[in-house]
């Protein structure tokens, strides 16, 4: 992300819909793009033995992590992004590869079950009022023993988002209240330089038992 971490062109309360994100890709105002897989996500990927896990990357952007997964031999990768401009290019790029599926669509409408979901600057790209819905949706998409893992900003931004910031304490509560348990949440030690000391690395799993019946709003 360039580097005052401005994800996007400045606007006053933009509607963060498909048109908005598409226009960022068309005008090349993609300051969040690292141009390489995120080192922290690479560490997660390198730690996985089972190459057949069902892996989802929502709001995948230019899909450097997906490329890394493919090169590492993973066989079941799903990408979803709401920008038609981006997805068209990704679908062309991965057309010959049966191990990856690229979906044009809204994450909040996605159906499926995944063993691992990778988070990287997707959470910070959605409006904060959508955060509960984000956690509910992640919970619904996770298989029984699935895991959501990745990076979240641990800072507040001066300017109108995206990116929208937050804090580790806030995320802990948000996730627990909405059916996911943080099993790891710590300062990220291998952030890219412009994000140093401003990200937390996390792993979250489903809170089991009768969470849904006690919390009916969590049914997606
Ligand atoms: C800040 S960018 C991050 C892209 C990528 N994760 C990265 O780190 O380079 C946010 C991405 O989420 C996508 N996005 C935003 N809202 C979405 C939604 N509701 N469903 C799917 N993708 C969405 C945008 O099109 C954009 O590619």
Write the layout of secondary structure elements.
Layout: H1 18-26, H2 39-46, E1 55-58, H3 64-71, E2 77-81, H4 84-93, E3 100-104, E4 114-119, H5 131-141, E5 142-153, H6 168-177, E6 180-187, E7 199-206, H7 211-214
Parallel strand pairs: 1-2, 1-4, 2-3, 4-5
Antiparallel strand pairs: 5-7, 6-7
S-adenosylmethionine binds at residues 7, 21, 32-33, 58-62, 80-83, 86, 106-108, 120-122, 125-126.
Describe this structure in words.
With 220 residues, this protein is α/β, with parallel strands linked by helices. The protein is built from seven helices and seven strands, in the order ααβαβαββαβαββα. A seven-stranded mixed sheet has the order 3-2-1-4-5-7-6, sandwiched between helices. It starts with 17 loop residues before the first helix and ends in a 6-residue tail after the last helix. Residues 7, 21, 32-33, 58-62, 80-83, 86, 106-108, 120-122, 125-126 line the site of S-adenosylmethionine.
Q: Order of helices and strands, N to C?
A: HHEHEHEEHEHEEH
Do you know the CATH architecture? 3-Layer(aba) Sandwich
Please tally the β strands and state the result.
Answer: 7
CA radius of gyration is 16 Å
Report helical residue fraction: 25-40%
Catalogue the ligands: S-adenosylmethionine
CATH topology tier name: Rossmann fold
Top-tier CATH class: Alpha Beta
How are the strands ordered across the major sheet? 3-2-1-4-5-7-6
Overall pLDDT: 91
């Amino acid at each position: 992300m360039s580097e005052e971490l401005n994800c996007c062109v400045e606007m006053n309360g933009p509607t963060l819909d498909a048109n908005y994100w598409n226009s960022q890709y068309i005008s090349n105002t993609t300051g969040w793009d690292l141009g390489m897989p995120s080192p922290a996500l690479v560490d997660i990927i390198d730690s996985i033995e089972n190459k057949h896990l069902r892996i989802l990357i929502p709001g995948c952007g230019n899909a450097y992590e997906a490329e890394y997964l493919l090169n590492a031999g993973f066989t079941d990768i799903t990408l979803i992004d709401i920008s038609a401009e981006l997805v068209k290019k990704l679908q062309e790029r991965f057309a010959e590869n049966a191990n990856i599926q690229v979906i044009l669509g809204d994450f909040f409408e996605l159906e499926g079950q995944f063993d691992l979901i990778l988070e990287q600057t997707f959470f910070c790209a959605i409006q904060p009022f959508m955060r509960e819905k984000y956690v509910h949706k992640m919970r619904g998409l996770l298989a029984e023993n699935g895991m959501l893992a990745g990076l979240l900003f641990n800072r507040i931004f001066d300017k109108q988002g995206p990116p929208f910031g937050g804090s580790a304490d806030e995320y802990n509560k948000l996730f627990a209240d909405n059916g996911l348990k943080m099993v790891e949440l710590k300062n990220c030690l291998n952030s890219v330089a412009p994000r140093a000391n401003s990200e937390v690395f996390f792993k979250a799993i489903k809170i089991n038992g009768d969470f849904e019946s006690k919390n009916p709003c969590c049914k997606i």
